[in-house]
């Protein structure tokens, strides 16, 4: 299971998307505060990373015994491992001290707890969205799409791991390795991570039938990251669930301007228009959805990944080729081609594609591809 929760009541699709500059033709929607009561007993931003006395005691011990950043990274990685009783639990999203006390949490909770300890130890943190296929779930009459996040610890704040010659960095993930192996990651900033934390809380509030609390948390999310399309999309879902259809329509329209190639906000808008019998407008929006899908190289890449996981390597090869044709500058597309060729016994083509992936890869990925090339040549 994954732990970044996006709400899909009925079939209202909510999915994380890459933000881009919003269109000037669509104004930023105002919050419909008059329809919601003030929320009480809420999680405040300053509470997310607070340490309790037991956490502070660990920081003190690690600071005394960890005479280098690498040692402190290792000590922290060992602390949050199964060996010390920490377990993955796809339950509620918790602040750092509550996760530490329970010794369990979903991936977002565990990432926040690890980040809180790392910062007190003088370590750098990088938050990473794992670009694996989302997992569907249904809770309390609400359909969810669950994404995944992990954390990378680096020796000093503000410095990327590959910029520190000879130093050690560690990615900590709370899912089994086999569930995330081979998926690319996208780094996100702390504001976006906190926004996603609040988006989780909002989803949980909707499941619990607490619209006022959900509205409060979505406002917090969008204060942290005003261009989080998933947050605006969730707000549209909440408004529609509360019967505020005109407000939901404006929010969906705005979310669509932030969503880049992701068509899910448009899909939500199309469903709303169809429910109102506005079929001419629905057809116009639906056409945009289809064009976005067909022109999106990651659509074909995702189809290729699914085919590969099913063992349909010929289908995977065809879809990887379509992705490369639309965007030949993505190293992961060429790596996918290489894997498919290899499974089909076309070793020369596999090597050529792997060389292309190595040329296009960022610095921290190049060595991995070079090792794979060496292994392929001696296969």
UniProtKB/TrEMBL annotation:
TPR repeat residues: 297-330
Cited SMART domains: TPR
Keywords, alphabetical: Repeat, Signal, TPR repeat
One Pfam family this sequence matches: TPR_16
Signal peptide (UniProt feature, chain positions): 1-19
Gene3D superfamilies: Tetratricopeptide repeat domain
Protein name in UniProt: Tfp pilus assembly protein PilF
Organism of origin: Ferrimonas sediminum
Organism classification: Bacteria, Pseudomonadati, Pseudomonadota, Gammaproteobacteria, Alteromonadales
């Amino acid at each position: 299971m994954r732990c970044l929760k996006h709400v899909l009541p009925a079939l209202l699709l909510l999915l994380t998307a890459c933000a881009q500059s919003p269109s000037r033709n669509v104004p930023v929607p105002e919050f419909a505060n008059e329809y919601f009561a003030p929320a009480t007993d809420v999680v405040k931003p300053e509470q997310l990373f607070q340490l309790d006395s037991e956490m502070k005691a660990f920081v003190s011990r690690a600071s005394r015994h960890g005479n280098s950043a690498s040692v402190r990274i290792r000590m922290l990685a060992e602390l949050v491992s199964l060996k010390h009783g920490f377990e993955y639990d796809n339950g509620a999203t918790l602040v750092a001290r509550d996760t530490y006390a329970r010794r369990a949490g979903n991936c977002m909770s565990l990432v926040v707890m690890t980040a809180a300890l790392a910062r007190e130890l003088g370590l750098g943190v990088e938050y990473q969205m794992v670009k694996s296929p989302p997992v569907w779930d249904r809770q309390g009459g609400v359909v969810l799409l669950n994404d995944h996040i992990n954390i990378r610890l680096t020796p000093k704040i503000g410095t990327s791991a590959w910029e520190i010659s000879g130093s050690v960095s560690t990615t900590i993930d709370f899912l089994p390795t086999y569930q995330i192996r081979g998926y690319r990651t996208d780094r996100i900033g702390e504001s976006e991570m906190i926004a996603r934390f609040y988006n989780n809380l909002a989803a949980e509030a909707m499941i619990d039938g607490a619209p006022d609390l959900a509205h409060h948390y979505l406002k917090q999310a969008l204060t942290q990251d005003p261009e989080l399309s998933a947050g605006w999309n969730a707000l549209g879902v909440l408004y529609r669930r509360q019967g505020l259809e005109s407000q939901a329509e404006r929010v969906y329209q705005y979310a669509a301007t932030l969503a880049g190639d992701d068509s899910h906000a448009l899909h939500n808008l199309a469903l709303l228009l169809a429910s109102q019998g506005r079929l001419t407008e629905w057809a116009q929006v639906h056409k945009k959805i289809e064009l976005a899908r067909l022109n999106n190289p990651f659509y074909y890449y995702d189809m290729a990944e699914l085919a590969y996981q099913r063992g349909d390597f010929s289908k995977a090869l065809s879809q990887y080729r379509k992705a490369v044709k639309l965007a030949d500058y993505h190293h992961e597309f060429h790596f996918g081609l290489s894997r498919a060729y290899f499974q089909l016994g076309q070793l020369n083509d596999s090597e050529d594609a792997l060389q292309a992936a190595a040329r296009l890869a960022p610095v921290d990925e190049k060595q991995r591809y070079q090792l794979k090339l060496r292994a392929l040549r001696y296969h």
